[in-house]
Amino acid sequence: MALLITAKCINCDMCEPECPNQAISMGAEIYEIDPNRCTECVGHYDIPTCQKVCPIDNTILGDPAYQESQDQLWEKFVLLHHANQL
């Protein structure tokens, strides 16, 4: 599933530059994750880097509106980063 940044976000700017899919951007009040670009770092890392670098526990969680399997996340990664090779 794509990840979601909750209202606990303190806008510390740690997550945005770490996202390998460029899925994180500043929203109206806090950072937001584009579910069409978020792969939970599948294809890049074992643990989502945004969760790893966030200084506030449980701020970045799975988005229940976007349930995806590991295979679906992998397919999204391939389309984002290797579409020209398909």
Automatic annotation (TrEMBL):
Where's the 4Fe-4S ferredoxin-type domain? 1-29
Has keyword Iron?
yes
* InterPro entries for this protein: 4Fe4S_Fe-S-bd, 4Fe4S_Fe_S_CS, PSI_iron-sulfur_center, YfhL-like
Could you list this entry's UniProt keywords, alphabetically sorted: 4Fe-4S, Electron transport, Iron, Iron-sulfur, Metal-binding, Repeat, Transport
Gene3D superfamilies reported for this sequence = 3.30.70.20
**Do the record's keywords include 4Fe-4S?**
yes
Q: What is the official name of this protein in its record? A: 4Fe-4S ferredoxin, iron-sulfur binding
Gene behind this chain? yfhL
